[in-house]
Amino acid sequence: MFLESLNELDLSYNSLTGEIPNSIGNLRNLSILFLGGNKFSGSIPQEIGLLESLNKLDLSKNVLTGGIPYSIGNLTSLSLLYLHRNHLSSSIPQEIGLLQSLNELHLSGNILTGEIPNSIGNLRNLSILNLLDNKLSGFISQEIGLLESLNELDLSGNIFTGEIPNSIGNLRNLYTLYLESNKLSGTIPLSIWNMTMLTTLGLGQNNLSGYVPSEIGQLKSLESLSLSDNEFTGHLPQEVCHGGVLENLTVANNYFSGSIPKSLKNCTSLHRLRLDGNQLTGNISDDFGIYPHLDYIDLSYNNFYGELSLKWGDYRNITSFKISNNNVSGEIPAELGKVTQLQLIDLTSNHLEGTIPKELGGLKLLYSLTLSNNRLSGVIPSDIKMLSSLKILDLASNSLSGSIPKQLGECSKLLLLNLSDNKFTNSIPQEIGFLRSLQDLDLSCNLLAQEMPWQLGQLQMLETLNVSHNMLSGLIPRTFKDLLSLTVVDISSNKLQGPIPDIKAFHNASFEALRDNMGICGNASGLKPCNLPKGNRTVKRKSNKLVILIALPLLGSLLLVIVVIGALFILRQRARKRKAEPGNIEQDQNLFTILGHDGKLLYENIIAATEEFNSNYCIGEGGYGTVYKAVMPTEQVVAVKKLHQSQTEKLSDFKAFEKEVCVLANIRHRNIVKMYGFCSHAKHSFLVYEFIERGSLRKIITSEEQAIEFDWMKRLNVVKGMAGALSYLHHSCSPPIIHRDITSNNVLLDLEYEARVSDFGTARMLMPDSSNWTSFAGTFGYTAPGA
C-alpha cells in the first residue's frame, strides 16, 4: 500500500468482501479505521496491532471469524473498539486490559467463550461495555467493580453463573445494567441499590431468588425494571415506584405474593406493566390507578378479584389488556369499546357474567379476543362483523345462546374460531365458509342441528375441525374432500350418516372422533365399509362396456397429446438448466443478505461441507426439509435445513420472505435457536441455524442410556427454559409470535442440557399468503397441543 501518511480510512457500509489484508499494518499514521457494515470474512490480521496511532477502530457487522488478536493490546491509544455482530470466537484476550484509554468496547453478537478476563478491571476510562449475546461463562469477575466510569453495562444473553458480584455496586455512574438471560443465582446484592443513577435494571431470565428489599426506593431515576422469569418471593416492595418516573415494570413468572403497593397505584408514568404468573392478590377495582400513558398490561395468572371498573375505558393508549386466570367477576364494561388502540383482550378463566358488549365492535385494531371459561350469557352481538382485524376469537366454555351470527363470515382474517361448550342452537351458518384463512374451527358441545353447510368445504386452510356433541344430521358434505389441510377432525356424538370424505384426516381419525352417529361408513378405524347398492352392480357391469367403446377412439388422440407435451417439457427443462448454471448466480436472489454474508462463498462452503447434501451428514428430517450438519472452513459448526422443492416453489414474494427472515434472525433469547440466514439458489435453498450439540429432546428421552443421564433436575430445567422461550415469543415480540408446533423434535438440548426451541417461524416464512403469521405462527397441517 502507498498510503502510509493516511490519517482516516472510512469504508463502512459498502458491500466489500474478502479478507482484511495484512498490509493494513503499513498505515502507521492511521487514527481512524472504519470498515463496519461490509462482508469482510476471515480473521482479523495480527498486523492490526501495528497501527499504534489508532484512536477508533470499527470492524462491526461483518463475517469475521477466529479470535480477537492478542496484538490488539498494542493499540494503547484506542478510545473506541467496535467488533460486534461478527462470528468471532475463542476467549477475550487478557491484552484487552492494556487499552487503558478505551471509552467504548462493543463485542456483542459473536461466539466468544470463556470468562471475562480479570484485566478488564484496568479499563478505568470505559463508559460502555457491551458483551451481549455471546457464550461467555463462569462467574462475573469482581474486577468489574473497578470500572467506576461505566455508564452502560450489558452482559445479557450469555451463560454466566454464580452470584452477582457485590463490587458491582461501586459503579455509581451506571445508567444501564443488563444481566438478563444468564444463569445467575442467589439474591440481588444490596450494593445495587446504591447505584442511584440507574435508569434501567434488567435481571430477568435468571435463577435469582429472595426478596426485593425496600432499598429499591433509592433508585429514584429508575425508568425500567425487569425481574421476570426468576424465583423471587415475598411482596412487591412499597417503594417500587418511589421516584415517580418508572415506565416499564416486568416481574412476570416469579413467586411474588401479597397486594399491589400504593406507590404502584399512583405511578402515573407507567407505559408497560407485567405482573403475570405470580400469586398477587387484591381488588382489581381499587388497587390500580389511572395510568394515562399505559400501553400494555398483563395481570394474568394471579389471584386478583373484584369487578372491572368503568375507569378501564380511560386507558386510551392500551394495546394489550390481559387479566386471564384470576377471580374477576361482574360484567365486561362497555367502556372498553372506547380504547380504540386495543389489539388484544384476554379475560379467559375468570367469573365474568352478563353479555358481550356490542361496543367492542368499534375496536378496529383488535386481532385477538379471548373470553373463554367465564359465565357470559346472551348472544354474540352482530357488531362482531366490524372487527375487521380479528384473527383469534375464543368464546368457549360460557353460557352463550341463540344462533351463531352469520355476520362472523365478514371477519375475513380469522385464523381461530372457538365457540365450543356453549348453548348455541339452529344450524351452522353457511357464512362460516367465507373465512378462507380459518385454521381452527371448534363448535363442539352446543345444540347445533340440521345439516352441515357445504360451504365449509371451502375452508382450504382448515387444520382442525371439531363439531362433536351437537345434533347435526344428514350427510357429510361432499365438498369436505377439498379440506386437504385438515389433520384433526372430530364429528362424534351427532346424527350424521353416509360416507366419510376420502381425505387423510378422516382416514386417520380415531374411532372416538367418529363414534355415536346414525350410520357413517368408510375407510376409518371402527367404521363399516360403504357397500354399493345391489342395483348399482348391474349398472356398473353394463357401463364398463360403454366405457371401453368410448375409450378406444380417444386413446390414440391422448397418446398424441402426451408426445407433444413431453417434447415441450424437455425443451423447457433444458432452458431452465442453462439458466441455473453457477456462472449465472447473480440472477439468484440476494444470498445471505440478512447478516451480511458473501452469499456465493457461503453457498459453496455449505455445498462442500455437506458434499452436496450427502446423506452421511443428515441429522434429521421434517415436513419442510432435511437438516444437515456442516463444518465451515472457519471450524464453526452450523445446522443447515435444506428445503424441499415443494416449499421453495412457494417463495413467490422473496422480499416479503426476506423481511420475515430478518425478523426471525434478530430474535435473541438464550432458549431459542439462533437463525443465521437464508440462501436461495436455483438448485438448492436452505436455512442456516446455530448447531445445538445434543440434538432433539425426543432423541434423548428415547435412548435408554441418555434418558438415565437426563435426570429430573435436568428435565425441570428444560421445562423452565421452554417456558421462558415461549414467554419471550408471546410477550416480548411485537406483534407476538405463537409457535404452535411444540414437539419433542423441536426442542433441542445443548451440552449443558439447556433447552433451545427451534422451528418457531418456518411455516410463517414458507407460507406468506396464509395470513399474518407474525401473530399466529405454526406448521401448516398440524396444531400442537402446546399452542
UniProtKB/TrEMBL annotation:
InterPro entries from the UniProt entry: Kinase-like_dom_sf (IPR011009), Leu-rich_rpt (IPR001611), Leu-rich_rpt_typical-subtyp (IPR003591), LRR_dom_sf (IPR032675), LRR_R13L4/SHOC2-like (IPR055414), Prot_kinase_dom (IPR000719), Protein_kinase_ATP_BS (IPR017441), Tyr_kinase_AS (IPR008266)
EC main group: transferase
Top-level taxon in the UniProt lineage: Eukaryota
GO biological process: post-embryonic development
Catalysed reactions listed for this entry: L-threonyl-[protein] + ATP = O-phospho-L-threonyl-[protein] + ADP + H(+); L-seryl-[protein] + ATP = O-phospho-L-seryl-[protein] + ADP + H(+)
Entry keyword set: ATP-binding, Glycoprotein, Kinase, Leucine-rich repeat, Membrane, Nucleotide-binding, Phosphoprotein, Receptor, Repeat, Serine/threonine-protein kinase, Signal, Transferase, Transmembrane, Transmembrane helix
GO molecular function: ATP binding; protein serine/threonine kinase activity
One GO cellular component term noted in the UniProt record for this chain: membrane
Ranges annotated as spanning the membrane: 546-571
Residues that coordinate or bind ATP: K642
Segments forming domain Protein kinase: 613-787
Bilayer topology term: Single-pass type I membrane protein
Major place of residence: membrane
Subcellular location: Membrane
Name of the protein in question: non-specific serine/threonine protein kinase
Organism, scientific name: Populus alba x Populus x berolinensis
